[in-house]
Design goal:
alpha+beta; six-stranded antiparallel sheet; 11% strand
Length: 667
C-alpha cells in the first residue's frame, strides 16, 4: 500500500513539473524569446478596467440586458481615462466581438489636460486591432465610431511590445512539449535503474535521519536548561513565549518592512529564538520513535530548500525564510513526536492566542471607534488583515469549546469566556465586511460541526450544549448593546481614537477613501455585499480587482523568483492576494510543486487525525489551522513570512502532522 502511494506521488510530482515545464517552453516558443527572468516576455502591459466598457455617454449607450455597447448616431464617442503611472506606450490593442456591421472608427489620444495629441483612423471589426502609437505620454483616449452599430468590447490594452502570436497555437505546442518531456523522463528513469541496481544505500531516507539527529543534538543541549522546571512553569513560559512571538509578528506587519535592514534581521532572529525556546521548554527525552517518512515532510523540506537556493541567488526584501523554517521550526516539529502529551503544546499556543485576542478587544473598545458605512480595521490598518486575524482567533475558541462540551464539571467562567469570544469574533467580522475571511470562518464552523455528529454523545454533552446556547444568547445581547454602543462611543468620548500611520478608510463599497471625514452611509451588511459580488457578473466585482493583480503576477513568473512585491495598479507595489502566486513570485515557479503537495497532505492528515480515536486531545487544531490557511490564501497573502498570525498558526500546526503515519502505525 505504501509503495503504491509513493509511486502515485512520484507520478503526480513528475506530471506537475512537466506541466509547468511545458507551459514555460510553449510561451517561450510563441514569444520567440528565451528569457528565464520573465517567461512571458512581451514587455509591460496595462489593461483599461473592464468597468469602463459599460459606461454610457452621449449617443454611446451600454445595453445591460444584451451586454452590448450601442452607438445611436454617427460619430458617437466615449472617453476613457488612463490611470497607470506609465504613460508612454508603443501599441494599443483593441478586441471587439458581436459587431453588427463593419465601420470606420477613430481613436484620439489626449494629453494631461485632455488636449489632442494625435488621432488614428482604422476599421472597426471583430477580433483584435493593433494600432502603433507615437512617442509621448498619453493620459486618456476618446473612441469615435462613425456609424450607428452595436458591439462588445473585450479588451483595451496598452503594450510595450506587439503580441505576434495567437493563443490558439498554444495547445498543440504544449502537448508536443509534454510528450517529449515524458519520453526524456522515462529514458532517465530507465538509465538510473539500470545503473543503480548494484548500488544499495542503507536507507532511502538517510538525509531525514541525519536532519533529525542534528535537531536532537540541539534540543538535548538546550533542554538541559529547563530540566528542573515543573510542568506548570514550563507551560506558563511556553504561553508567554508564544504570546511574545505573536506580538513580534504583529509589529512586523504593522511597521511593514520600513525598518532598517538591521532591525528586520533582529525581529526575525527574535522570532526564531522564541520558537527555539518553546522547543527547548517542550523537549522530553522519551523512547518514542520519531520517523519522518511521509510526503508532507518531503514536500515541506523541498519547499524551504528551494527557498534557500532562491534567496542565495536573488536577495530578498523579506529574508531567510528557508533558514528560519529548517533551523527554527524543524526542532519544534521534532518536539511533537517526543512529547508524552503533545496536546499541552496546542493548549499553550491557543491560550496565548486567546490572550492576544482579548487584548485586541480592549484596544478596539478604547482606541478604535466604528463608524457606520466604514469597514472596520480593528488592530490593523486594513479590514482584510483584521478579518484574517479574527478567523484565526476563532480556531482557539472553537477548540476549547469542543473540548469543554464533554466535561462532567464545566465551569461557568470557562464557558462564558469561550462563547463570548466566539460571539465577539462574529460581531467584529461582520464589521470588517471581508468575504474571504467569512468563507474561512464558515468552513471552520463546518469542520467543528462535522466533528460533533459522528460520535454518540453523553447526557452531560447535551447539558453543556444547552448551557452554551443560553450563554450565547446572553453574549449576543451584551455584544449587540454594550459592545456596539462602546465601540462607537467610548473612543470618541475619551478622545483616544487612534489611527495608524498612512491608514486608509475603506467604505462598504470597497473603495478606499483618504479622508477621515467620511459621510456615514447605510450599512448594507456582509450578506448583501457578498450577494452583490456574486450577482454582479463581473470578475472585478467578485474578486475586488484581484484578478488584475493576479495577471500582473502571472506575467512575471520566472525561474528563481523576485526580491519583493510586484508593481501592479498605478505603479503601486502590492502583494499577490493569493498564497500560491506569492510563493511562486518570491521563490520561482517550480516551488509551486512541493508547496501544493504540502498543502494537500496537511489537509489530508488533518482530516485523518480528528477521526482517529487514539490521537492526541485537541486534535481539531490541525484541520482548522489548515482550512483557515488555505481558504484565506485563495484571495489574501498568507504566504509572506513573519507577517501574519494565520501563517504562524499553520506552520506550528504542521509539526503535529509530521508524525501522522508513525502515530497510525503505533495504534
Amino acid at each position: 500500500m505504501g509503495s503504491e502511494v509513493n509511486r502515485n506521488l512520484k507520478f503526480c510530482v513528475l506530471l506537475m513539473i512537466g506541466i509547468i515545464f511545458s507551459g514555460i517552453v510553449t510561451v517561450m516558443y510563441l514569444t520567440e524569446s528565451i528569457n528565464l527572468d520573465c517567461f512571458y516576455d512581451v514587455g509591460d502591459m496595462y489593461d483599461i478596467s473592464s468597468s469602463y466598457y459599460k459606461s454610457s455617454q452621449e449617443n454611446w449607450l451600454y445595453d445591460y440586458e444584451k451586454e452590448l455597447t450601442v452607438t445611436q448616431t454617427e460619430n458617437a464617442s466615449c472617453y476613457f481615462r488612463f490611470d497607470d503611472n506609465q504613460k508612454n506606450w508603443n501599441y494599443l490593442s483593441l478586441e471587439i466581438k458581436n459587431l453588427s456591421d463593419n465601420t470606420r472608427a477613430e481613436i484620439e489620444f489626449l494629453g494631461e489636460n485632455d488636449e489632442l495629441l494625435y488621432a488614428s483612423d482604422f476599421e472597426l471589426k471583430n477580433g483584435r486591432t493593433v494600432l502603433p502609437l507615437q512617442k509621448g505620454d498619453i493620459y486618456a483616449i476618446n473612441v469615435i465610431v462613425r456609424n450607428p452599430v452595436s458591439f462588445s468590447i473585450e479588451k483595451i490594452q496598452f503594450r510595450e511590445k506587439m503580441q505576434n502570436f495567437e493563443w490558439r497555437q498554444a495547445p498543440g505546442v504544449f502537448v508536443m512539449v509534454l510528450v517529449y518531456y515524458f519520453l526524456v523522463v522515462l529514458l532517465i528513469i530507465y538509465l538510473l535503474r539500470y545503473s543503480g541496481r548494484k548500488k544499495h544505500l542503507s536507507s532511502k531516507n538517510l538525509w531525514i535521519e541525519i536532519l533529525q539527529k542534528n535537531y536532537i543534538c540541539v534540543l538535548d543541549q538546550c533542554g538541559i536548561l529547563f530540566e528542573r522546571f515543573s510542568s506548570l512553569r514550563r507551560s506558563l513560559l511556553r504561553r508567554l513565549t508564544f504570546f511574545a512571538g505573536m506580538v513580534i509578528v504583529y509589529f512586523i506587519l504593522i511597521r511593514g518592512w520600513y525598518w532598517k535592514l538591521l532591525a528586520q534581521r533582529k525581529a526575525v532572529l527574535l522570532l526564531a529564538c522564541c520558537v527555539l525556546l518553546i522547543a527547548a521548554l517542550s523537549w522530553e527525552r522519551t523512547d518514542k520513535a520519531v520517523r519522518w517518512k511521509n510526503p508532507l515532510v518531503y514536500a515541506w523540506t523541498a519547499t524551504w530548500l528551494m527557498a534557500i537556493i532562491s534567496e542565495f541567488v536573488i536577495e530578498k526584501d523579506i529574508k531567510n525564510i528557508g533558514i528560519f523554517m529548517l533551523g527554527a521550526m524543524g526542532p519544534l516539529y521534532m518536539v511533537w513526536g517526543k512529547m508524552k502529551k503533545p496536546e499541552r503544546l496546542i493548549r499553550d499556543f491557543l491560550t496565548a492566542l486567546r490572550w492576544f485576542y482579548w487584548i485586541s478587544c480592549i484596544f478596539c473598545f478604547f482606541f478604535r471607534s466604528f463608524a457606520p458605512g466604514i469597514r472596520y480595521s480593528g488592530i490593523y490598518s486594513n479590514p482584510n488583515l483584521f478579518a484574517g486575524f479574527l478567523a484565526t482567533a476563532n480556531i482557539a475558541f472553537l477548540i476549547f469549546l469542543d473540548e469543554n462540551l464533554s466535561k462532567e464539571r464545566l465551569k461557568w467562567h470557562i464557558l462564558l469566556e469561550n462563547v463570548l469570544g466566539l460571539v465577539t469574533i462574529w460581531g467584529f467580522l461582520r464589521l470588517t465586511e471581508s468575504v474571504t475571511s467569512l468563507a474561512a470562518y464558515t468552513l471552520e464552523w463546518a469542520v467543528f460541526m462535522w466533528k460533533q455528529f459522528p460520535t454518540e454523545k453523553k447526557t452531560v454533552y447535551k447539558k453543556n450544549l444547552r448551557n452554551a446556547l443560553a450563554v450565547s444568547a446572553l453574549s449576543m445581547l451584551l455584544v449587540a448593546t454594550v459592545g456596539k454602543w462602546g465601540l462607537g462611543s467610548v473612543p470618541d468620548a475619551l478622545g483616544t481614537d487612534f489611527l495608524f500611520q498612512g491608514e486608509q478608510i475603506y467604505s462598504i463599497s470597497g473603495a478606499p477613501s483618504l479622508s477621515l471625514e467620511v459621510e456615514a452611509a447605510e450599512q448594507i451588511g456582509i450578506s448583501d455585499r457578498l450577494l452583490h459580488k456574486v450577482t454582479s457578473g463581473e470578475w472585478n466585482a467578485l474578486f475586488g480587482g484581484r484578478n488584475g493583480v493576479w495577471k500582473e503576477y502571472v506575467r512575471n513568473w520566472n525561474l528563481l523568483g523576485h526580491a519583493g512585491y510586484q508593481e501592479c495598479f498605478i505603479g503601486k507595489k502590492m502583494h499577490a492576494h493569493n498564497a500560491l502566486l506569492q510563493m511562486i513570485h518570491y521563490y520561482g515557479i517550480f516551488i509551486s510543486v512541493p508547496y501544493l503537495i504540502m498543502l494537500y497532505y496537511s489537509l489530508k492528515y488533518g482530516i485523518k487525525i480528528i477521526f482517529n480515536k487514539n490521537q492526541m486531545r485537541m486534535n481539531l487544531f490541525f484541520l482548522l489551522s489548515t482550512v483557515n490557511y488555505i481558504v484565506q490564501g485563495l484571495a489574501e497573502d498568507v504566504a509572506t513570512p513573519y507577517l501574519y498570525i494565520s501563517w504562524l498558526t499553520y506552520y506550528i500546526a504542521l509539526g503535529g502532522m509530521f508524525h501522522q503515519q508513525i502515530q497510525k502505525t503505533e495504534t
